[in-house]
Write a structure and sequence with these properties.
The complex is a heterodimer of chains A (391) and B (305).
Chain A lengths: L13 E10 L2 E11 L4 E5 L6 H9 L6 E6 L2 E2 L11 E3 L11 H11 L4 H14 L15 H13 L5 E5 L7 H18 L2 E6 L2 H7 L2 E6 L2 E6 L1 H6 L4 H6 L4 E9 L2 E6 L2 E6 L9 E6 L5 E3 L8 E12 L3 E8 L4 E7 L11 E6 L5 E4 L8 H19 L1
Helix pairs in contact in A: 2-3, 2-4, 3-4
Chain B lengths: L1 H9 L9 H8 L2 H4 L2 H24 L10 H8 L1 H34 L2 H16 L2 H12 L4 H8 L11 H25 L4 H8 L4 H29 L3 H6 L7 H11 L3 H33 L5
Helix pairs in contact in B: 1-15, 4-15, 5-15, 6-10, 6-12, 7-10, 10-12, 11-12, 12-15, 14-15
The chains are: A alpha+beta (391), B mainly alpha (305).
């Protein structure tokens, strides 16, 4: 656990190839492949039922798989039972043994591995020190707070020096403040030990702040994998855009490379957008609220603009969220620092504007249902697009 | 049944153990008032006869006169008494062990099956209690006869015949069946509280399935094991009808011996002394058992969240 034996606990390389798992007729994980470098902190992010926990359980050995392969440092682990995989697991519900003290809990994996007694004592002491609970070894789990219990669970999962640590929503049961502190703590320990971590969460803030790589799961597949910045700034599809942070989404249709048509009331506007290639593709123009400015005057520095009236303004201290209602009841949100945000009264007519390099076109997937109004609205834009394209 | 209730309470975070003033206040609290009808009934139906028995055991002697503890002295001096006392405890221990071996897997299964199956299993446990004691015992008389259905079945597969009726083995078979509900129900209540996910955690930490059971599941189930075993043990110690109907006078148990002293020899004092001895030993066992299970119940209490 100390820097001197760090070389022993260096992270494992994990490769998942075409993993498939069905529960009856429900496909939980479908043909998922993923490669994780040694020492990486990878987060599986996604809504519940998206397959992230099933994938984790397949790695830990709690569920068997219907197809595919899982390799740890190039060796398949699928034929190994859970207790021979030597992978640390931390659970959302801590899963500490209630009849054992914290120290006995931490000693449990060492005893199963027949580590000599004197070494057990030493390793337990060091593991508890690592999670700052050196003086709590004699306590029973029920005598510890939730955060302390989770730290004991972490020590227990690390004490046998696994090269891969799996964490299944480990902080979900803790309150916000404690969660933030634990995020820092987990990250520090991972960096100190250099082990590979796979972390499952549905909290995107947690995913963004802790991970080297985030894999977004949707309906049993990885929708996108990349750094937090990749996913936030260059989402691969609408699901990722919607899941990572807030976004304004305007139904549009592409008219040519780099431009889309948007039906604003009776007229059709041509807006510039990244990622728009061929003409006639339906989708959404995605703009993050922090890139949207609201002003009474047209800002010459921003090349995209729509008009509407001020709706609700919400004050968050550090920033304001201003809603602008477009002519067709679509709402565009702008999030700006309080001193930048326009002081406006509900109903004022304003310009919502952004720089087109912050505007991304994403095509509608099969799963993306458009509401009736958005659909008829697109049809209006459809005609307009022709006009714009040929006009 | 009181043991079951006490074990149930042991899991509660705090026990009202305080200075005498607080105990006195609790005595007159409203909650206490609710127990008065039961206490009155117990006082008349149990307390008074019990006091009479204790009194008789030290005042009523076969010859008409004797010293204070003469009846007790007689009990331990007579070899037959000691043999029967030992046999009674040995039988109770065998019955308890057999019940435990049947009840543990059954109660385990109850925690993992679906609710429909669980209902069926629960009904199967409780149903025999709805049949009268005499009916059940006479049913066993029929079943266990030398030419009864069980021996017929054994004969059909080339075994037996076994002599069961009128022997200790017949008594044990009967007592096991009659006592099963008293161990399955508390055991199930205890196993139900064990977080099944702990076994997964144990596996992930390197425990084989067998180790996960012996190191985690088994220790956490001990409160239920102790509570259930204690009930069966105590019920068996005091059982009279089953040994009388299924056993033989040559292998009688203590309750039969007591009945003999009282009914046939009219030695009320000696019978009372034997009753008191049985009661004291039983109380001692309950005390030891509930202490043991309170300790482990307190430990497993942390698992419930």
């Amino acid at each position: 656990m100390q820097p001197d034996d760090r070389s022993m606990a260096v992270g494992a390389r994990v490769e998942i190839r075409n993993l498939t798992k069905r529960f009856g007729s429900v496909v939980a994980v479908e043909d998922t492949s993923l490669s994780i470098e040694p020492g990486q902190f990878v987060t599986f992010l996604g809504p519940s039922g998206s397959g992230k926990t099933t994938t984790l359980n397949a790695i830990s050995g709690f569920t068997d798989v219907d197809g595919g392969e899982i390799l740890l440092d190039g060796t398949s682990i699928l034929s190994l039972p859970a207790h021979k995989r030597n992978i640390g697991v931390v659970f959302q519900h801590y899963a500490l043994f209630p009849h054992m003290t914290a120290a006995d809990n931490v000693a449990f994996p060492l005893k199963r591995r027949r580590v000599p007694k004197a070494q057990v004592r030493e390793k337990v002491r060091r593991a508890l020190e690592l999670v700052h609970l050196a003086d709590y070894g004699g306590r029973l789990p029920r005598e510890l707070s939730g955060g302390q219990q989770q730290r004991v669970a972490l020590a227990r999962a690390l004490v046998f020096e696994p090269r891969l640590l799996l964490m299944d929503e480990p902080l979900a049961a803790l309150d916000r403040r404690l969660r933030d502190a634990m995020q820092v703590e987990i990250k520090r320990i991972q960096e100190q030990l250099g082990i590979t971590v796979i972390y499952v969460t549905h909290d995107q803030d947690e995913a963004m702040t802790m991970s080297d790589v985030v894999a977004i799961f949707n309906e049993g597949r990885i929708a996108q994998i990349g750094t937090a910045a990749d996913l936030y700034e260059r989402p691969a599809d609408l699901f990722v855009a919607r899941f990572m942070g807030e976004s304004n989404r305007l139904p549009v249709i592409t008219c040519d490379e780099g431009a889309v048509a948007f039906a604003a009331g009776a007229e059709t506007l041509r807006l510039r957008a990244r990622n728009a290639t061929e003409a006639g593709v339906r989708g959404m123009l995605v703009v993050r609220p922090e890139n949207v400015l609201v002003g009474r005057e047209r800002d010459p520095g921003l090349d995209s603009s729509l008009t509407g009236r001020i709706g609700r303004v919400r004050y968050f201290g550090a920033y304001c969220v201003t809603e602008v209602v477009l002519d067709d009841e679509l709402i565009v949100r702008s999030r700006q620092p309080v001193e930048v945000a326009l002081e406006a009264v509900e109903g004022d007519r304003v310009h919502v504007q952004w720089n087109s390099r912050h505007a991304l076109f994403l095509r509608s997937g099969e799963g993306d249902q458009l509401s009736g109004s958005a659909s008829s609205f697109l049809d209006a834009a459809d005609g307009g697009a022709e006009a714009v394209a040929h006009g | 049944m009181s043991i079951v209730q006490r074990v149930g309470h042991a899991g509660a975070p705090s026990r009202p153990a305080g200075p005498g003033g607080r105990a006195l206040a609790a005595l007159f609290s409203r909650e206490f008032a609710l127990t008065i009808p039961a206490l009155v009934l117990l006082g008349f139906a149990m307390g008074y006869p019990l006091a009479t028995i204790v009194e008789r055991s030290v005042t009523d002697f076969p010859g008409g006169s004797g010293a204070f503890l003469d009846n007790y002295k007689w009990f331990f001096e007579e070899e037959l008494n000691r043999v029967v006392l030992l046999r009674t405890f040995r039988t109770a221990a065998i019955v308890t062990l057999a019940c435990l071996l049947i009840a543990y897997p059954y109660a385990c299964a109850m925690t993992v099956v679906g609710w429909r199956m669980r209902l069926v299993m629960q009904a199967a446990v409780v149903a025999p209690l709805l049949v009268g004691t005499m009916t059940r015992n006479y049913s066993w008389v029929i079943l266990l006869q030398d030419k009864g259905p069980i021996n017929d079945a054994l004969g059909a597969v080339g075994l037996g015949p076994l002599h069961m009726i009128g022997s200790l083995s017949g008594v044990i078979i009967g007592l096991v069946q009659i006592s099963l509900p008293f161990i399955i129900l508390p055991l199930y209540a205890s196993l139900r509280e064990i977080d099944g996910r702990l076994m997964g955690a144990a596996r992930s930490l390197g425990a084989t399935p067998a180790q996960a059971f012996t190191r985690v599941y088994l220790p956490l189930s001990l409160p239920g094991v102790v509570a259930g075993s204690l009930v069966v043990f105590v019920v068996t110690l005091g059982s009279f009808i089953t040994p009388a109907l299924l056993g033989s006078p040559q292998q009688s148990l203590l309750p039969q011996l007591i009945a003999q002293q009282v009914n046939q020899l009219l030695a009320w004092g000696r019978g009372s002394a034997m009753g008191v001895i049985l009661l004291l030993v039983t109380l001692l066992l309950i005390w030891v058992g509930s202490r043991a299970s309170r300790g482990s119940a307190a430990l497993s209490g942390g698992g419930r969240r």
